[in-house]
Protein 1
Amino acid sequence: LSAVSNAEERAYAPRCLHETRTRVLEDLKEWSATEGQWKDAKLLILPGPAGHGKTAIMQSFSEVLLRQSREARVVVATFFFKAAIPAQSQPMALVTTLAYQVAEHWPSFWDNIVSVVHENMRIFSTSLEHQMDHLL
């Protein structure tokens, strides 16, 4: 759970300075709302070399989404990969961490997860695609 954007472990994660990277943050906002030039994009990749601020951008953006989600009652789930932390560098934790966050905000979803696990006790050792199809 330390990979979640509002986890204590991420309290000191880098963020964008005020009034910086506004164009990128606006593009991300449009993409998340399926508006503008991003309305048909299912996946958006934020490329760039190490140290150029991708994590700061996404941390700032996820915090904006989390604030907005409280008002709009929209579920936001995040996962930050981090190579230096083994639990956060393994893709196998991705789907379960996202599913957990959805269940936190949408309690009836928890019943779905319990049902899936009950029907297939080895769901957590299946492919990420299988987990995504069945848990999310």
Protein 2
Amino acid sequence: MSEQAKIPRLPIPALKATVDRCLRSIEPLVRNNIDALAETSKKAMDFLKVANRLQHRLTVYEKTQPNSWLESWWLELAYLSWREGLCINSNYWIAFADDPNAYGTAKASDIPLLGSQEYLNGKSFESNEYGEFQIRRAVKFIQKTLDYKELINNGHIP
């Protein structure tokens, strides 16, 4: 944290550029439906009329924040108010490098796709049975956590 003051402030994105980028990103989804694209563009332009006031409020708010306009919202909404397990649902490796040997013989084809019915009804949610993949990931997570704790305890983290 000693270098925090040297990090440039997060800029507030230009509103018109953000809306234009949004419209470009949905264009491939509605390319065959000209009416849908026109209606979405109209709604985006209507939004800009209100959004300019909100953008001004954000600019005023940004000046009251010590580091970033996003920092307190991100901390509160992404980490503190979300009641699911952070390590599993947000970033299970946290700051650890991926270990290519972490999974041993578990094959990618053995791992259910996130959101699939197999995933939603997986053994880890319905019983106390866990597969090799889950066990290896948990062990590697604990190992890396203890490695990091050792670096802290030995004063090797600047």
Protein 3
Amino acid sequence: NLKNQLLTDHGHNPLMKKVFDVYLCFLQKNQSETALKNVFIALRALIYKFPSTFYEGRADMCSALCYEILKYCNSKLSSIRTEASQLLYFLMRNNFDYTGKKSFVRTHLQVIISVSQLIADVVGIGGTRFQQSLSIINNCANNDRIIKHTTFPSDVKDLTKRIRTVLMATAQMKEHENDPEMLVDLQYSLAKSYASTPELRKTWLDSMARIHVKNGDLSEAAMCYVHVAALVAEYLTRKGMI
């Protein structure tokens, strides 16, 4: 039947991709407040019925969804920010349940990556509105009695803390873009905060290396690349690929 077709290859199939793109299109186009709320409700149902689509295999659909939801966490409308924050919380909470209440690593990483992308794409993403949305997500975790005695609330707090670190560091980088030494120090602090997310740590180490090369500090750049190589080797070893 249709549901089995949609679940083929953990939801990574052409039919599910077309269905998901319809949902995504509703988020990417300007909608009324009422329409958006209904889209958020429909997305909850999709996530609940087809969790493997977002938490297994490729991360492209989870990534795209996190990006669009986070944009609405910066909405000028308070009601939309609240709805978007609660939907993002639902995505994380559902991920946690899907792993047998062990972690929500997939959504955690995609949220951080999406925030990093939004910094470049959306002006004011680190403002008061977005900070309020982060607080809503934290409150949802703290008031969720079912998972009160699990690691989930503290993991959510860690995620929002990491997001704030990225936003603060990015703002500082803009202030010190003409001070190479300060800029590299900020890049290093940010890379260090990603000890548990190799993909993003590598991204910031690469960025540090480019700054060193630009300034003629080739030894320092080489050290960054050695660190990246070690990071990749460690990751591949954990995956059993080398």
Protein 4
Amino acid sequence: MLAAAELAALRLKDLPSSNHIGTEIDQRDRVFRLLDKNGDGRISIEELMEVMEELGAPGEDAREMMQLLDSNSDGSLSSDEFDLFQKQVEFMRNLEDKDDQYKTILNEKLQMEYNSGLIQVYSKELGNRLAS
């Protein structure tokens, strides 16, 4: 589904802007509208399958995706359901970014401690004890 959303976002870049002066349409809404091929305000399983197949995924992947995202089990995705999915993806991406940031900070702190000598002293003491 993420790949489908990204494909729709790429297609958006090719569309001319209809209103240069007015406010910009929300990107999530624009992606939803591109996936909603018949413009009925819902993404049906057929529309989802078509997009997924364009991306090279089997139709069964689209069915599984629909089951995961269709929170009210009506067989289609509303813009609210799609928006919730995109927020969850964004949340997960932010977690990955935070993980990377904390990993960097932790590595820097450990390197500072190692360079300060405490870890080296403990390592030598442990090595001496093991050698004895």
